Structure formats: structure tokens, C-alpha cells
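Project standup — Tuesday

K.O.: blocked on the structure for the chain from last sprint. Re-posting the sequence here as requested.
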Amino acid sequence: MSSVMNRKCLHRRPQCCQEEQGIASGLLSTSRVIGQALSVALAGTIFTSFGAAAAGVLLSSQGQNLSTSSVSDLQNTFLAGFHAAFLVCAAFAAIGIFTSLVRGNEHKNRQTQLQSSDNVAR
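H.V.: unblocked you, prediction finished:
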């Protein structure tokens, strides 16, 4: 999928010459990998800060020796951490969708302005 997205992004910019397409492709790939690494780190930090990682370790190592209420509490802690991590990731995804939509409209407006200035120049 990444090569498809790179080609699609690079073909939207016809003014980009052939020598710069390699640089642009590398920049797109690097920014995507950095974003993925940061999102995993953020989700892991949120998951751990809710005590979900410790609850998961206790459930997996001593789950058979715990009372039913303790297991239920640990499961709820684990799920709360998981839920919080997904909510934060969903919020960032919503921000990304919003900025993409705004940027898309900006690109269309710029093309319309360029076309109207070309028509005026003729």
C-alpha cells in the first residue's frame, strides 16, 4: 500500500521533477514510519499508565490463584487501559481526517485560482 500512496501523492504534484521524486518518496516513507512508531509508543504509554500492563501480567501469571473478584477487577483495569489507548488513537485519527479534508479543499481552491488567473492572462 505504501508504494501506491507514494505514487498517488507524487503524481498530484506535476511540477516535481524526476530528480526530486526520489527525495519526496523518501520523505513520505520516513514520515509514515515515524508516525507509526510514535503512535505505537503513545498507545503503549497510555495503556501502561492505566495499569493495564501490570494487570495483564498478573492475569497471565497468577490468574488461576486469584479470587473471582480480583480477576474481574484486573480484567476491568486491562480493558480500561486498552479502551483509553484506542480512544486517544481515534482522536488523533479524527484530527488527521479533519486536516486532510481541509487541506484537500485548499488544494482545490488553489487550482481554481490558478485556472482563473490563466483565463484572465489569455
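K.O.: great, moving the ticket to review. Helices lie at 2-11, 18-49, 52-62, 68-121. Residues 68-121 form the longest helix (54 residues).
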